[in-house]
Structures are given as C-alpha cells and as structure tokens.
Amino acid sequence: MNPAPADLRLREAVSDEDVLKVMVVRGIVFIEEQDVDWDGEIDAFEAESIHFLGEADGQPVACGRLRLMPDGRAKLERIAVRRRWRGRGYARAVVRRLLDEARARGARGTYMHAQTYLRDFYAAFGFRAEGAVFDECGIDHITMVREDD
Length: 149
Description:
Number of strands: 7
Strand content: 25-35%
CATH topology of the domain at 9-111: Aminopeptidase
Number of helices: 4
CATH superfamily of the domain at 9-111: Gcn5-related N-acetyltransferase (GNAT)
Largest sheet: 7 strands, mixed
Strand order of the largest sheet: 1-2-3-4-5-7-6
Distance between the termini: 15 Å
Structural class: alpha+beta
Helix content: 25-40%
CATH class of the domain at 9-111: Alpha Beta
Order of helices and strands: EHHEEEHEHEE
Shape: globular
C-alpha cells in the first residue's frame, strides 16, 4: 500500500473543535450527498468511539471512527472523504490509520458495514464480505470482516 498523502494531516480528534470538524465532514458526505437522515448519522456511540480527522488545504476533508467491541474486535465506521478531495488516497490513509489504531489497542480482528460499491476497495485491505446485503440508512451495505494479521 502507498504511504499516506503528504498533504493530509490525519490525527485523532480529541478536542471539541476537532470532533465538530469530523461532524462537518460526515454531514457533508452522508447527510447532504447520500441523503442519510441526521438521526441515522449521529448515534448513541459517538462518545465511546475513537474519531479521526483528516485535514488538507486548511479544510476538514476526511474522517473515520473506530469502536472497540465487547467481543474483542474493532468496528470501523463513518469513513468519509469530501468530494473535492477524493481520488488522492485520503480514504486509504484513514482506513490504514483505523487499522493501526485497532491493532495498537489490542483488537482481535476488525469488521465494518461497508457500502456495497466499496467492497473491492476494502478487499484491498484484507476484508472479505460476509453474509447478505442489507439496508442501513437507505443504502445497501455488506458486512466485511478482516482477521488478525
């Protein structure tokens, strides 16, 4: 895999300002572009999640979050890149950062609910599709699983 793009500043969102910037990215991508309802996008897991923010050109442009699950695995969620900044490797950088963080926190495998059109993208990271396609917030998703390295 390629290294993270040099112009992307990717970090854990720990300040209130950074978390707000994460919500801006999610709002633009999921609510505006994909027509997800606000109450479907913001959920009860925000406080327990580990959020990451990517900035470029002085703008919040990418994000993702990680949840450590009771079964010992980590769940990757809310991975998004604003339209203008797509095609630059930012999503790959976010996924790699989430996987690195999951490993560092002792997760025993990772999984996600991926939009079906991204199946091949996530397969490049070692994820495999599991189960049937299902609806989540009006969008077709598939569970994708990645075993420990």
